[in-house]
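Researcher: If convenient, please comment on what follows.
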Amino acid sequence: MERVKNLLFAGIVNPFVKWALIGVAALLIAVIFVVISIEFAPDFTESDTFKQLISDFNYSDFLMFALVGFLAQIIDGSLGMAYGISSTTFLLSLGLPPASASASVHAAEVVTSGASGLSHLKFKNVNKKLFRNLVIPGVVGAVIGAYFLSSIDGKEIKPYIAAYLMVMGLVVIYKAMQKNILKTKTKNIGPLAFFGGLVDAIGGGGWGPVVVSNLLSKGRNPRYTIGSVNLAEFFIALAGASTFTFILGIDNWIVVAGLMAGGVFASPFAAYLCQKVNNRTLMLIVGFVIIFLSLRTIMLSFN
């Protein structure tokens, strides 16, 4: 038994096992959240709100959003970034307003990023000093960004958000084309984290591309950079989701549930794909898909 345990946590066993465990952990977090909610609101299942949620549930919509979550997690699990911008780009292309899309993505991302952050902690991929420098400015930026997005007309800002996502697609392509860079001293991590949290909340994604790309461009160790940024992402997602919920509420639970289900189901496939497909090729594909869908959203906004 001890040997099996050592093999699992040493990462020697097939990646499917590791990612399956992460998926189970994510589901447990979701179940615990639901159980706590029911415990503190025992009459909820008898309420008109709950009955309305059940009556409005549409399986075809759920499967569509689960597919979005699946594709986004495949991308994020393979590259270590781009869950938010991928999900938001797909949701905007399906017609969701920017604030609803970003709120849904952040709510789902609390579960997926929480499981990812715990995994990175377990495998000792986190630089604690870097994490501390990232988390507080990032949370502040996420709260301000969520407040700003919740206070404006979604239709007016939708093409600008799509334009931002298109730029993020270009960033992903640029990152794919970069070669290894010699490490230099990293400065202004706090402002970088603040900006990353701000644009992540406003654009529905961008924490990974903005922060990871900048840190890696300075030659920082990829393992500790990705691990630290992913752990911090849980708190950024939680801050953004909490702010959106406080201001707007979340009435599109079918979107959130679909994103969560698709993301958890995709985890082992993403790990397998990560080993079999060249990262540069995947990043180029992702970058071009984001640009194409963002251009489509911009064109539809002016029709």
